[in-house]
Every structure is written in C-alpha cells, then in structure tokens.
Amino acid sequence: MAIEIGNIPAFDQFPSTGVGLAIPFNNGVINGNDPVFTVNYTTSKQIKYNLINYFLTRKGERIFNPNFGSKINNFLFEQNNPNTVEVIKKLIEDDIKTLFPIIKLKEVIVTTNFDNYSITAQIFYSVFSSLDESVEFNIPL
Q1: pTM of the model
Q2: Residue 13, CA atoms < 13 Å, CB-side half-sphere
Q3: What residue segments make up the domains of the chain, in order of their start?
Q4: For domain 11-140, which architecture applies?
Q5: Between β-strands 118-127 and 133-140, what pairing exists: parallel, antiparallel or unpaired?
Q6: Are 111 and 84 in contact (CB under 8 A)?
Q7: pLDDT tens-digit map of 85-94
Q8: Most CB atoms closer than 10 Å: which of 7, 88, 138, 141?
Q9: Neighbours of 138 (CB within 10 A)
C-alpha cells in the first residue's frame, strides 16, 4: 500500500538540512553559545524571510541583480492618504503573484500610522499545506 505524503517540499524531508538564513542576523558571540547566523530548516519559514528581504530591498539596490527588490521605498515622502495605501497594497499583491508563485495569498492589509508617519503592511498567506502565516513590516513615509 502506498503512503501519500502530500505536498511536502523536497528540502523539508531532511530536517537536519538548512534551507536558508533568518533575517536579521544575531549579534551573538562567534565562539560562544549564540550563533551569528540562525539557520531555517523549513521552506515555509524561509519564504517568510525571503518576503521580508524582498520588500525591504530597493529595486536596483543589489549590485549584480538590479531587478531584485520592491518599489515600496519609492513612496518615501509621499502623501499619507488612502490613494497611496491602495497603490502600495496593489504593488505588494502584484509582486507576490509574479515573483512568489509558491505562495497562496490570503489578504494584504495596509494601514496608516499618522503619529509615526509610516504605513504598516501585513501579508497573510499560506505555503503548501501549512497553516496560515503572516509577515508585517513598516514603511516610513
């Protein structure tokens, strides 16, 4: 009788194999107990850090990969109004659908914070058959 594994990524079948690094890096001691780099062992956790890395990198910021990054940082010093919020929300949705096809996007919530002059983006998504996950980051305006 065959066992149905389901939709498990190839990397997740080997729990001792690292998939990527967590962001931000730790300020740990190199020869002590705290590692400088935290290794992710599951694909779904690494995708979360890939989203953070992508959206907090300006388009053109990477030297040998000028097409990597989001245009969200171009909204610095723009008006903090509902139109800007909708444009940022649409930009996030389009980038995820185009560049992260493995992600099933549930919802994108963009809220303004007038006291801190910033916008908070929350991305709710699922990967494979995992539970719903979310990413949140602030965009200064």
Answers
A1: 0.76
A2: 6
A3: 11-140
A4: Roll (3.10)
A5: antiparallel
A6: no
A7: 899 999 999 9
A8: 88
A9: 12
